[in-house]
């Protein structure tokens, strides 16, 4: 058993034992009152010491008897002052120990209340039900994640065709248009006149796409005019 336990269980006066001993608050209040009283006593003794020193200086060697009496009183006051210092240290240590004990008691009491509250809360809890609940929560979280992923994915409606096949078909269409344009192109007829006997310097002929296109358009117009003339002659 510790000294503090012996003090609380076996110490104290008969009156304290009869009423179960003082409370920690009462004991702390008494200790603080004692500290305050001793502090005032310290101030008084320090004042008396200063006064006796002044008396000793005043008499000095002129009145050695009075000076020595003043120094003796100063020594007694200093001794009492040292005793009070020791007493205050002891009381301070006791007060701190009592405060810590009271704090620990309150802490333990509150921890006990908390433990009882936790026990009461857990009375109606079944670990098996908790495991099932957590499993259900996990499954629902997975389902919610799958739904979120499905909603956030880019819609692919109408994208089921192969893009390479579409590009190949487009190239075929372009080639067909190009071939059709080449078939409609009509080159000018070869002249039937014979070449001169003496070779001469003939100008170079450079055919360009605009020239070919112009020739084709002129031939088409001439053919259309012939058709119109034939149709007019038949109608008349």
- SSE-based structural type: mainly alpha
Distance between the termini: 148 Å
pLDDT below 50 for ≥5 consecutive residues: which ranges?
Answer: 7-18, 199-207
Q: What sequence of helices (H) and strands (E) makes up the elements?
A: HHHHHHH
Q: How much beta, percentage-wise? A: under 5%
Mean pLDDT, rounded to whole units? 77
The fold-level CATH name of the domain at 22-124 is Helix Hairpins
Per CATH, the superfamily of the domain at 22-124 is: ESAT-6-like
What is the percent of helical residues? Answer: over 70%
Explain this structure:
- It is built from seven helices and no strands.
- It is mainly α and 236 residues long.
- Helix content is 77%, strand content 0%.
- Among the domains are: 22-124, ESAT-6-like (Helix Hairpins); 126-155.
- The protein is elongated and about 175 Å long.
- It has helices at residues 3-10, 14-18, 24-59, 64-121, 127-152, 163-184, 209-235.
- It is found in: Cytoplasm, Cytosol; Late endosome membrane.
């Amino acid at each position: 058993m510790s000294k503090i336990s012996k003090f609380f269980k076996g110490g104290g006066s008969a009156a304290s034992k009869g009423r179960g001993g003082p409370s920690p608050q009462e004991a702390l209040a008494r200790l603080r009152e004692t500290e305050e009283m001793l502090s005032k006593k310290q101030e008084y003794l320090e004042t008396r010491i200063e006064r006796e020193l002044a008396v000793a200086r005043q008499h000095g060697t002129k009145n050695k008897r009075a000076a020595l009496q003043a120094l003796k009183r100063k020594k007694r006051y200093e001794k009492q002052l040292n005793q009070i210092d020791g007493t205050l240290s002891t009381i301070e240590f006791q007060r701190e120990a009592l405060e810590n004990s009271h704090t620990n008691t309150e802490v333990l009491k509150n921890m006990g209340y908390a433990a009882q509250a936790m026990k009461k809360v857990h009375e109606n809890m079944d670990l098996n039900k908790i495991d099932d609940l957590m499993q259900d929560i996990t499954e629902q979280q997975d389902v919610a994640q799958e739904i979120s992923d499905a909603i956030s994915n880019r819609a692919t409606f109408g994208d089921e065709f192969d893009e390479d096949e579409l590009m190949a078909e487009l190239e075929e269409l372009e080639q067909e248009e190009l071939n059709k344009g080449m078939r409609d192109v009509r080159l000018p007829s070869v002249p039937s006149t014979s070449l001169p006997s003496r070779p001469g310097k003939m100008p170079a002929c450079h055919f360009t796409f605009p020239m070919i296109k112009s020739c084709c358009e002129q031939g088409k117009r001439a053919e259309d005019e012939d058709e119109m003339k034939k149709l007019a002659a038949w109608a008349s």
